[in-house]
Amino acid sequence: MLTIGQLAAYADVTVRAVRHYHAKGLLPEPERDASGYRRYDAAAVVELIRIRTLADAGVPLSRVRELLVAEEAQFAAALREVDRRLQAEIRERRRHRERIAELAAGDGLVLPAEAVAYLHRMRELGFADRLVEIERDSWILIAAQVPDQVPALMAIKHAQLEHEPLRRLYLDLADLADCGPDDPRLPSLADRVVAFIEAAAARSAHVVDAPEVSPELVALLDAAFVEFFPCAPQLLALLEERGWVGWTDVHRSER
Predict the structure, then answer these.
(1) What is the DSSP secondary-structure string of 61-74?
(2) How are beta strands 244-245 and 251-252 bridged, if at all?
(3) Contact between residue 222 and residue 248 where contact means Cβ atoms under 8 Å apart
(4) Which domains does the chain have, with CATH numbers?
(5) Per-residue pLDDT tens over the stretch 161-191
(6) Is the model's pTM score more than 0.85?
(7) Cβ(100)–Cβ(92) under 8 Å?
(8) Cβ–Cβ under 8 Å, residues 68 and 51
């Protein structure tokens, strides 16, 4: 006769597992002997090995008791059902792994390749992280709303980025990141923004049939700009004084 520890060792399980099977009603719990110990026989070892084998195969413990007493045909049918469930779980876990891989891809999870390349190029050229962040979030919004227009729009942005004078002006806007609403640099920053806008407009003047962005999306992107930069409302007011209105769809004031 075996102690619970010896029984567990024969079946290659833990004592805790044996007690768990007892609690679940899968393995009968023998009476205690005169010394107060439970003793197990060979039949208990065989039963425990059968339980362990089914559990290791992925059979839910709630179904182990059913399979232990099932006829051959019922047993085979139940195992086929368990196999189907395991295959479904494998597919689900595979999808989870694919999702994790996508998350590890960073910007590529939510942005098309053209936009990811653009952000990568901005980082290579030393743009302030804050400017890269607002570009990224803006392009996430654009890609979600007008995905078909992203390639044409990104072609314009890539061309601007590779135009050295325009790139220098853009890099010069790094002060946007830490400029507050009462910052004395704001008038100078507004002048630099105007220089960039005018240079960008001149650079894009030859572009034919440039994609248009809906007023709703423009408003959403402008709202994101205001949210990102504390100085945005004051900066927009200064730009209007200098004859420019808007941010995403910036254009000359009609006044």
Answers:
(1) HHHHHHHHT--HHH
(2) antiparallel
(3) yes
(4) 4-103 (1.10.1660.10), 107-252 (no CATH)
(5) 888 888 887 887 777 777 888 899 899 988 9
(6) no
(7) no
(8) yes
